[in-house]
Write a structure and sequence with these properties.
Length: 88
């Protein structure tokens, strides 16, 4: 079932109980706010994978990300790199 408003569409899906439970566990383990956020990311990944968009990081960007993680861990803002991923 799909319903739309002027800006968004709403989609209702049915999941087998086992798949729903596994999805809920995944969402909690990886810091998603909810199942909808996870599904939206999964759809974007499927649609844009291999497309013309280059989402890779340069060496400079990777270096900056690593430095940010180190400083954040040192200052107690996050406990490890996995904690950082959960914040998204």
């Amino acid at each position: 079932m799909v319903s739309t408003t002027s800006t968004n569409a709403q989609i209702n899906i049915r999941l087998p109980a086992r798949l729903q439970s596994a999805t809920e566990d995944y969402v909690e383990s990886y810091g998603y706010r909810n199942i909808q956020e996870f599904i939206l990311e999964a759809i974007r990944d499927k649609i844009f994978r291999g497309d013309k968009y280059d989402e890779t990081f340069s060496e400079k960007e990777i270096d900056l990300i690593e430095k940010l993680l180190v400083v954040s861990i040192e200052k107690g803002k996050i406990k490890d790199q996995f904690d950082f991923v959960k914040s998204f």
